[in-house]
């Protein structure tokens, strides 16, 4: 079985190339250019990275002996070791899942909006990211009112533009 990038060259001319006319390559290319696939992949990647970030941040929350758990507000440090682990892992899981959902939602929302704008404008430039950032920020802050939506729009647009500008910089040749 021959995978793209493995084995003798079949099309591109260089060793390890692939045939762009291969139906599997065409299917994968079309799938990756689909806004639906980009949205799902971005949401999934955001969910995964958000979960890892949530585990890390939740593990940092237990750095004081005054952290309390339960309705009786018993300090965690005075509980038996197994009880501390049970409470800690349960809390880490809940925080991690919450962060994962948020990151996944932001990733899917931004990616879907950006892909839609790119399709409507038929251009691939920094305006797409800025507009998608503005819409994403406004949607995420909509429950805070118009002022919060405006600030969310400006913040996400600025961040998206900065990241896009950095990613589009020409690479240094070594």
TrEMBL record:
GO terms for biological process: protein insertion into mitochondrial inner membrane. InterPro entries: TIM22. It is a multi-pass membrane protein. Keywords: Membrane, Mitochondrion, Mitochondrion inner membrane, Protein transport, Translocation, Transmembrane, Transmembrane helix, Transport. It comes from the Eukaryota. GO terms for cellular component: TIM22 mitochondrial import inner membrane insertion complex. One of its GO terms (molecular function) is mitochondrion targeting sequence binding. It is found in: Mitochondrion inner membrane. Essential core component of the TIM22 complex, a complex that mediates the import and insertion of multi-pass transmembrane proteins into the mitochondrial inner membrane. In the TIM22 complex, it constitutes the voltage-activated and signal-gated channel. Forms a twin-pore translocase that uses the membrane potential as external driving force in 2 voltage-dependent steps. Component of the TIM22 complex. Belongs to the Tim17/Tim22/Tim23 family. This is Mitochondrial import inner membrane translocase subunit TIM22. It comes from Lasiosphaeria hispida.
């Amino acid at each position: 079985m021959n995978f793209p990038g493995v084995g003798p060259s079949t099309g591109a001319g260089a060793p390890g190339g692939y045939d762009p006319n291969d139906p599997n390559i065409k299917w994968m290319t079309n799938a990756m250019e689909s806004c639906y696939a980009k949205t799902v992949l971005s949401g999934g990647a955001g969910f995964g990275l958000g979960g890892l970030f949530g585990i890390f941040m939740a593990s940092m929350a237990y750095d004081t002996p005054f952290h309390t758990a339960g309705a009786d507000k018993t300090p965690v440090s005075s509980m038996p070791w197994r009880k501390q682990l049970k409470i800690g892992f349960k809390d880490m899981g809940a925080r991690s899942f919450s962060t994962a959902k948020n990151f996944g939602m932001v990733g899917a929302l931004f990616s879907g909006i950006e892909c839609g704008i790119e399709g409507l404008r038929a251009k691939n430039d920094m305006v797409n990211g800025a507009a998608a950032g503005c819409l994403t920020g406004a949607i995420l802050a909509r429950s805070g009112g118009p002022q919060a939506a405006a600030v969310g729009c400006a913040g996400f647009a600025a961040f998206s533009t900065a990241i896009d500008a950095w990613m589009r910089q020409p690479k240094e040749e070594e």
